[in-house]
Amino acid sequence: MSTFQAPKGTYDLLPPDSATYLAVREAIAAPLRNSGYGYIETPGFEDVELFARGVGESTDIVTKEMYAFETKGGDRLALRPEGTASVLRAALEANLHKAGNLPVKLWYSGSYYRYERPQKGRYRHFSQVGAEAIGAEDPALDAELIILADQAYRSLGLRNFRILLNSLGDKECRPVYRAALQDFLRGLDLDEDTLRRAEINPLRVLDDKREAVQRQLADAPLLRDHLCDACKAYHEEVRELITAAGVAFEDDPKLVRGLDYYTRTTFEFVHGGLGSQSAVGGGGRYDGLSEMIGGPALPSVGWALGVDRTVLALQAEGVTLDIPAATSVYAVPLGEEARRVLFGVVTELRRAGVAADFSFGGKGLKGAMKNANRSGARFALVAGERDLAEGTAQLKDMESGEQVPVALDAVVSTLRARLA
Ligand code: ATP
Ligand code: MG
């Protein structure tokens, strides 16, 4: 123990568990890479106004959860609470949308920061992998993203997740619905904060997690009944495309999301094994966001999947990922001369692409073999003075226990062949 601990609401990723996190990130990214999405990385902080405008002044993320600060130079910045606003900002800044190839499809992976009340599955520092498809209005694009997220979760072995789907309408039909909902909310017995929210962004009240509020919302008007013909047709096509792909989903007419910028298609991935932090990912269409942050009209759609909660979901289902041991060969030198020779062999193995490690610190045979075992290596390569005199090392198969001498100059080719 040192004097210091990880800050409240954060945790460290340590081996061997950290390998699962990497594998989850990789599994989410793989279908995206395979579908024309290019990798984008943006700074960990941005102008606070980007999030205030992009995510929404009335959202919890902006009003309560943002790490905002002023720099010594007087800039007002915030640690990024989510990815979409930054990615769109970067795409606009680099004029990616003018390169003539819309949609611009991007994926990202990184750390996000929200000042939340920490609990299991809810942290102040967490990881997301996300995807954004910018500049096209096409139901197939919405369907593509939902299908790719489903593919990612399934490739990990997750089964008990559900996809909730809704449409939030567009600038045509949403204002009409908004007014109807507002009328309805004004007649309810709500606390002051919630009434204020009902005035600024009534849709967000539907997302209220409190039982007492939800009970009163039972008869709330639904957007489904207010969608304009264009939104209805669009949504119907998204549903058909996902269905045709064999991806199961549930219509959830009350699904809204914690960010203001969503239009039309909205979806969430929820998992039954996570208690109240049931959302493992979410996303949707955000046709108005570009204009909100000063860009041209660029209808877009995207999602973000939480890495931390996906790992928890895997644990809840008892799924362990098949992660190959990091080390294939573990070299155990006995004596000074062997130390120099085997260190050279290990360097050669590594250069040849074989994952190799070495017993450091001059350990004896017993201690070194214990470490070789712990490393999960398939082979141990042991050499003492007598082996060196014969120009060989002992190659021990850690599974069968079988041990054979191998000429030192044939170690690399032998191991490459046996590991292939
Ligand atoms: P919630 O309703 O649980 O607060 P959210 O709607 O705020 O979730 P999004 O902004 O949609 O979440 O982020 C997408 C995903 O990122 C979530 O589904 C979740 O997996 C993950 N996530 C969001 N906030 C946190 C957090 N504080 N800690 C861990 N993961 C998080
Ligand atoms: Mg949240």
Automatic annotation (TrEMBL):
Reaction(s) catalysed by this chain's protein: tRNA(His) + L-histidine + ATP = L-histidyl-tRNA(His) + AMP + diphosphate + H(+)
Keywords, sorted A to Z: Aminoacyl-tRNA synthetase, ATP-binding, Cytoplasm, Ligase, Nucleotide-binding, Protein biosynthesis
Localization per record: Cytoplasm
PROSITE patterns xref list: AA_TRNA_LIGASE_II
GO MF entries: ATP binding; histidine-tRNA ligase activity
Classification via Pfam families: HGTP_anticodon, tRNA-synt_His
Family membership: Belongs to the class-II aminoacyl-tRNA synthetase family.
UniProt-recorded name of the protein: Histidine--tRNA ligase
Originating species: Streptomyces fradiae ATCC 10745 = DSM 40063
Protein's gene: hisS
